[in-house]
Amino acid sequence: MLRTTTRHLAALRHVAQPVVMRQASRASVYKSVTLLSRPYATSNNKVVPLTAEKYPGFTRNDQFKKLTEKDVDHFKGIVGESALIYNNEDDLAAFNTDWMNKYRGQSQLVLKPKTTQQVADILKYCNDQRIAVVPQGGNTGLVGGSIPVFDEVVLSLQSMNSIRSFDDVSGILTADAGCILEGLDNWLNEKGYMMPLDLGAKGSCHIGGNLATNAGGLRLLRYGSLHGTVLGLEVVLPDGSILDSMSTLRKDNTGYDLKQLFIGSEGTIGVITGVSILTPRRPKAVNVALLGLNSYDDVQKAFKQSRSELSEILSAFEFWDNNALQIYKKHSDAKPLMESEYPFYVLIETSGSNKDHDDEKLTSYLENMMVDEVAQDGVVAQDETQIKNIWSVREGFTEALGKEAAVYKYDISMPVPKINECLEDMRQHLKDGGVFGQPDSPIIDVVGYGHVGDGNLHLNIAANRIDKRVPELIEPYLFEWVAKQNGSISAEHGLGVAKNQFLSYSKPEGMIKMMKTIKDLLDPNAILNPYKYLPSK
Ligand code: FAD
Ligand code: 2HG
Ligand code: ZN
């Protein structure tokens, strides 16, 4: 039913008219986040505390050998002198800290192998000598998984960055694990294809790191998880043996699908060195719209309707709340995308092969959203720059939050209707705990954004100072809340050192036991990425 009050008509025109974005004239502000490593100091020049000291409960496992000059010489023999960083604090800094400046390790040695055989030789030696190893990709992970805790050797995949093959009939790409995601996507672009995943860290993260974390990202809704798109893997096991399952077959039902074990294993049972992955055709027509909404109920209505009306062309449905927007605005000089502000926003992307068809569908959907008063305002990008401008807001929250004195990051999944309740409950809980809502409170805000279409909320709590009451109030409170909804304490970033101790909130005892059995089987000396992933007890 088309209701036509003056307000509705005005709103409708607003969406349907060709140039609706108020930010149209701004030069391209979009950049994929190319995260430069920083030295051991935060933006306010505080030294990043050592993970081993900041987080209680870590004790160096004395079974692990301390590096000797003889070991270093052996590694030089494998990778060559130029592919190794040893005892040089300045050069080691980038590998010993994560980009959030939250975790800091004490490694004295970084190895940068160039071939799978070199990785195998390194791991065999480390296993024989009981030297602990941390595999590292682009170092953009958000749970401390890629950073040593003590003196583990860092095995960086950054020099293994070649594309191995591409079949332009089937769209199957094989590549080294150290290829940067954005590099692969740009390369595929030339061939009319694209990577099936996309995330804000694409300018730095490696495909190997994406696989090791089972990264989800912005288009999982459309292209599915890596568990579906990966066809084969090449993995070096801790004892140095190479597990070659670089299949390029879409169908293969011969035996256990072992590659799945390594997807999401966060470098604890093998080092991924190569991948075979199915890539989709790059869409000929892409549209991006942004809606301003008054309530989370409206967000859900907009989502439900987008699945019904946009169905096969819907490629992303992201949301953020106004609290997230405020933090973004505080740290960005970008002009607002809408004249007024709303409690919630959704970003809708369509990708298809026929522009007229997609435009028609999107316009009709947006008109319905406005007329039914689900959305209060809407803008549609008219060109590539405007598309990027809208995406840059969504992709900019992580970096903006990183500029606050402290940020407590949570990445949870739950039934879609529960997402805003989770945010509201946390705000109230922190107010009740006396750390939020007063002029001198340590908490600046609780912000929500994420892949709402996947039931994945990024709940971030920004603080103006470190106050030990804050983490104590959040954990395990939030994990208990999530468990009650049958949700997951990590939807996509993984466990690392941030969440391994809380695994039982998401996995039953029997499964954790089986995970430990698999770890013991593949890595009996526990040299790969110790102190992480599995709970210590
Ligand atoms: P690293 O950080 O280097 O490593 C991550 C883990 O994988 C570590 O445990 C490491 O030991 C292991 N590892 C790395 N390479 C290998 C390998 N070759 N073999 C075995 N183990 C390995 N994640 C999402 O899921 N969705 C998002 O939308 C998303 N957006 C992000 C946006 C920003 C701005 C940032 C900073 C991060 C984001 N992330 C997101 C986090 C995400 O996990 C990563 O960015 C990415 O998948 C990690 O890749 P990496 O190469 O940087 O891995
Ligand atoms: C995203 O979706 C990433 O933007 C990062 O997964 C989330 O900053 C975060 O908490
Ligand atoms: Zn995410």
UniProtKB/TrEMBL annotation:
GO terms for biological process: malate metabolic process. InterPro entries: FAD-bd_oxidored_4_C, FAD-bd_PCMH, FAD-bd_PCMH-like_sf, FAD-bd_PCMH_sub1, FAD-bd_PCMH_sub2, FAD-linked_Oxase-like_C, FAD-oxidored/transferase_4, Oxid_FAD_bind_N. It comes from the Eukaryota. The keyword DNA repair does not apply. Residues 103-282 form the FAD-binding PCMH-type domain. It is found in: Mitochondrion. It is an enzyme of class 1 (oxidoreductase). Its cofactor is FAD. Its EC number is 1.1.99.39. GO terms for cellular component: mitochondrion. GO terms for molecular function: (R)-2-hydroxyglutarate dehydrogenase activity; D-lactate dehydrogenase (cytochrome) activity; FAD binding; metal ion binding. Gene3D superfamilies: 3.30.465.10, 3.30.70.2190, 3.30.70.2740, Uridine Diphospho-n-acetylenolpyruvylglucosamine Reductase, domain 2, Vanillyl-alcohol Oxidase, Chain A, domain 4. Keywords: FAD, Flavoprotein, Metal-binding, Mitochondrion, Oxidoreductase, Transit peptide, Zinc. The keyword Cytoplasm does not apply. It catalyses: (R)-malate + A = oxaloacetate + AH2; (R)-lactate + 2 Fe(III)-[cytochrome c] = 2 Fe(II)-[cytochrome c] + pyruvate + 2 H(+). It holds the Pfam family FAD_binding_4. SUPFAM superfamilies: FAD-binding/transporter-associated domain-like, FAD-linked oxidases, C-terminal domain. Catalyzes the oxidation of D-2-hydroxyglutarate (D-2-HG) to alpha-ketoglutarate. Also catalyzes the oxidation of other D-2-hydroxyacids, such as D-malate (D-MAL) and D-lactate (D-LAC). Exhibits high activities towards D-2-HG and D-MAL but a very weak activity towards D-LAC. PANTHER family: D-2-HYDROXYGLUTARATE DEHYDROGENASE, MITOCHONDRIAL (PTHR43716:SF1). Belongs to the FAD-binding oxidoreductase/transferase type 4 family. This is D-2-hydroxyglutarate dehydrogenase, mitochondrial. It comes from Absidia glauca. The lineage of its organism: Eukaryota, Fungi, Fungi incertae sedis, Mucoromycota, Mucoromycotina.
